[in-house]
Automatic annotation (TrEMBL):
Protein name: Uncharacterized protein
TM stretches of this protein: 34-55
A single GO cellular-component term on record: endoplasmic reticulum
Keywords recorded for this protein, A-Z: Membrane, Transmembrane, Transmembrane helix
GO molecular function annotations of the record: palmitoyltransferase activity
Source superkingdom: Eukaryota
Organism this protein belongs to: Drosophila willistoni
């Protein structure tokens, strides 16, 4: 693709300045004739070539970053959240150390082993000093506990269809400002309870609570995105008031 982009750019340059070459007696360079059609096709092909170079370069960068840091994308996300937790929480005096980062050279040699020797048994991996095999596991469990502590309860007041772009049922802005993820959308009925863990302007991410009196298993996913206008937050005061009303 790099070769194609260079050839296309030079050819377009020659065609664009063809009259200039002829005027100055350099007819051997005036070999490209441009019209509207082939000029547009040349620019389009050049854009495709440059886009392919950028996409391939980004892919190579991501792969080499994983090799040098010994982290997958999921592990990078865990490390990012671990460091963010320690910035917000003053109780954590030490920064989180990723246990499998042994230095860029050692990480590189673990992937590109020119002797074709197996490293480890696939279960127990070498870790850096001050860490053990369960350092990352404990951090994941702590993050899940923090996520559970941040969970909010919502009650459905308007049916959610589960459509990806519910313009007709939820409004124009809800249909336009959709989450750019492949997570599913969940269907809700009035009085359904949802445990919400992520909040955006027009969408919420949570898990529907299955009611004890729910006879049949409802179709569709239980966890996913839902329009925020379909639900209202349930506080402890609302629950206690509802309980008192039921008792009367």
């Amino acid at each position: 693709m790099l070769q194609a982009s260079v050839i296309l750019s030079l050819a377009f340059y020659r065609g664009l300045f063809r009259r200039h070459f002829i005027y100055h007696g350099m007819r051997h360079l005036a070999t490209i004739r441009l019209n509207m059609l082939n000029a547009m096709l040349t620019m389009f092909s050049f854009g495709v070539a440059v886009g392919s170079i950028m996409a391939t370069g980004k892919l190579v960068y991501n792969q080499m970053k994983s090799v040098f840091t010994n982290q997958t994308e999921i592990e990078q996300w865990i490390v990012k959240k671990a460091r963010f937790r320690r910035v917000l929480n003053a109780k954590h005096s030490q920064m989180f150390l990723y246990p499998y980062d042994l230095g860029w050279l050692t990480n590189f040699n673990q992937v590109f082993d020119w002797d074709f020797q197996q490293h480890g048994d696939g279960i127990v991996w070498p870790v850096r000093k001050g860490c053990d095999q369960y350092t990352l596991t404990r951090e994941q469990l702590s993050q899940k506990l923090d996520k559970l502590a941040r969970t909010r309860r919502y009650r459905c007041i308007y049916p959610a269809t589960g459509h990806w772009m519910p313009i007709w049922s939820q409004g124009l802005m809800t249909g336009i400002c959709i989450p750019y993820t492949d997570d599913p959308r969940i269907c809700l009925e009035p009085n359904d309870l949802v445990h919400v863990t992520r909040i955006q302007d027009y969408w919420l991410y949570g898990e529907r609570v299955q009611q004890p009196n729910e006879k049949e298993r409802r179709k569709g996913p239980k966890r996913g995105w839902l329009p925020s206008r379909c639900v209202i937050e349930v506080t402890d005061n609302d629950e206690s008031a509802g309980g008192d009303g039921d008792g009367d």
